[in-house]
């Protein structure tokens, strides 16, 4: 594999390209959701790099870790909403509308398509390439949150960073994509059911 087609190089080039796209469209109202969904459709190339990690946990352990991740995400949200008004349900709904999520089908597309592609991209192209586990968790979480820097408030970004730390830690333990995907989707569904 040439130097330009190595995973770190592909990640860096695509990551900078995605940031450029988001930066250019940052002042355009209500297009962020469309941009991010399109960006993660472009990341399907990371599926070519995906290989099941030989040190991964069994599927039952991985799903259990995903369930624990969902519980941790819900706990982080419940604690954060008491201290950060910007992450309370009405504020989150306003933010979603501001970034272009107007219909339930858009949320379903995000859960069914964008979340798995996001996890595939960041876990396969970045987290798997960093050998230090703690550094892998922190760097991957920061990189993931950085895509939202133009649309979220600093406190919302901090909360999202905490969420990403939970998901990255779950992946680091299980080494299977099912863990962060389960954690993220399940926590969103439960929080929607609790708050609507």
Automatic annotation (TrEMBL):
The keyword Transmembrane helix applies. Keywords: Membrane, Transmembrane, Transmembrane helix. GO terms for molecular function: endopeptidase activity. Residues 104-182 form the CAAX prenyl protease 2/Lysostaphin resistance protein A-like domain. GO terms for biological process: CAAX-box protein maturation. The chain crosses the membrane at residues 9-25, 31-50, 62-83, 103-122, 134-157, 177-195. This is CAAX prenyl protease 2/Lysostaphin resistance protein A-like domain-containing protein. It comes from Macrococcus carouselicus.
